[in-house]
Amino acid sequence: MTGWTPGAAVIERLLDERRLERVQGANADGSPWLERARRTITAARAVEQTSPDSAFVLAYDAARQACTALLAQQGLRPTTSGGHYAVEESVRAQFGAVLRPFGALRRRRNELEYPTDPTDEASAGEAADGIQAAADLIEAATKIFPGLGFF
Fold this sequence. Notes:
The chain has helices at 8-16, 31-47, 52-73, 83-95, 101-113, 124-144; strands spanning 20-22, 76-78. It has 151 residues and is mainly alpha-helical. It is globular and about 45 Å long.
């Protein structure tokens, strides 16, 4: 295990399970992911009133991109077998409550993308709440980002 303390055991487990992998070089720069998150949240705002489902999914994508930026900055990325849940587990273990809303966004996005009830749609208010939660996550990730090093 590394000298990394918060969440190190979870990160090591995810690496052992091949749900996360180490990256280096340009792939270990989280800056492009943060920029992508900012562009995606702008897109979510643009369709908030006309397509609440799309706005919510875009808000979730923006939050995921911000969280992925944190992992990339540490020389980590989720694998296809780890997917979005590995991102959630990683950031929750390392950064705690400040990024906890990501899990709720992820679960609701899954409900919207893979509905058990085809009439389940996001309202404009729910989209607005999702956009705000994602914007808060992007802001938190932006503050955490400069202090990160390789895991």
